[in-house]
Amino acid sequence: MDKPPIIHIAAVSIPAFSHQASLLEFSKRLLHLHPHFHVTCIFPTVGSPPDATISTLHSLPPSLHVTFLPPIPKHHLPQHSPPAVQIQLAVSLSVPSLRNALETLRSTSSSSSPIVAVIADPFANEALEIAKELDLLSFVYFPPSAMTLALFLNLPRLDREISCEYRDLKEPIHIIPGESSMVTINGPDLPEHLQDRSSLSYDLLLQRCKRFDLADGFLVNTFFEMEEAAITALQRQRFSLFPIGPIAQSGSETGSGSGPGSGSGCVEWLEIQPPRSVLYVSFGSGGTLSEEQVNELALGLELSGQKFLWVVRAPSNESANAAYLSNEKQSNNNNNNNDIDSDNFKDSMQFLPSGFLERIRSKRQGMIVSSWAPQARILSHNSTGGFLTHCGWNSSLESIVCGVPMIAWPLFAEQRMNAVLLTEGLKVGLRPKAEGINGVVRKEEIARVVRDLMEDGEEEGNGIRRRIEELREGAGCAMREGGSSTKALSQVVERIENFGS
Ligand code: UDP
């Protein structure tokens, strides 16, 4: 039988590890299920590519290529603006080189199999315009939830209909009117870009959302059984939606599982802990806490009496995502010594409460890892029984595919919305209460939620464990042959195959 012709597509991401990693995982799955595809991933870059992304490149299949666009120097971006703004401006500054790259891939003279479609990150949706100019099919690959996509697609309408700040609304927001089964969101839980409508951040997002009209469809990193309400509501709004997830890093694979920080000793430490006894604590690839909050968290974990494995990052009193665009988190770890007894390590952890390291060591209660850990491997380990997470969508999905219940501690971006979905919608996590909005979570409250989640006798924790187990099974079914996400991906493939024929 003749081999089907090669179909070549381009996939464009943004300069942020978690988005790049998600797109690479998606591409790997596409190539695994549909081997006649070839994918060229194009990554705009600020300064230098993230170390964590570089460490994933060695494990890519031969039909997956990665091109880094010429880097945008950091000093060309406004220094004090939030990472979300810097990322979007970096993408805009990269448009000329992106256009060149796509034109070259499209040209029949320079490639034996010119690209026929472009798949773009929502924050790189300038690529949709270029795709139209080049007469290519174009999709958005949406790494977060369908609920967040619903918000983005409905933002131009919400902007017209609501005149005050969203955070001042007295009633929770129905993202799509009349869709009562969708979770509603209080204004302060909307993404950080929406918290100040006079900000550049809001304006950039709004302009971006208006550009989604150009897309031929949306590939969303979720699965039908988990977000049925949002998915069907968007389909009723006539958006062409393909729930193809959960696309998540897997503990058995390479990538972040064996990337920076894998020698930290924490997996070895997990090996000697009882089943489901350890709470894993991490705030993603760049989340940071204030000094006061780091102190309360340390004392709260200790007070809970539960075992924990904490990926500690130096505090920042200025912003919750101070480390997001920096490579420090990973390069730190390449020459890192996580030996809790070493003077170097103690010096680097001086911001922790006095005597904390010594106490948790003598009680054998905890393990501290500096800045970066092999998260996917930790979550898939049998000793891990809970995840205190910042609710980044990749982290949330990694927890779901491993069946690990969560403590939702959102920091920035759309993480508050994810926290609402996880705790109020899916009911697979607990959310500690802070003192006021953006206030500090006190140690007693931390100890309470940790116990409620981890202790076997706790009714709330038992219910959460049951529901996340059901969700884990649902995720597995969706990704199997004949499962909802596998079928949705086949529909995308069919659209691309039939394009132009
Ligand atoms: N990650 C990791 N080790 C760490 C911190 C993060 O491997 O110490 C990975 C994690 O597994 C996930 C990604 O980085 O795949 C974080 O993505 P997420 O969307 O959760 O959050 P973000 O980094 O965008 O805030």
Automatic annotation (TrEMBL):
InterPro entries noted in UniProt: UDP_glucos_trans (IPR002213), UDP_glycos_trans_CS (IPR035595)
Stretches of the chain forming a coiled coil according to its record: none
Organism domain of life: Eukaryota
Keyword Glycosyltransferase: yes
A Pfam family it matches: UDPGT
E.C. designation(s): 2.4.1.-
GO function terms (MF aspect): UDP-glycosyltransferase activity
Sorted UniProt keywords: Glycosyltransferase, Transferase
Family indicated by similarity: Belongs to the UDP-glycosyltransferase family.
Protein's recorded name: Glycosyltransferase
Organism: Senna tora
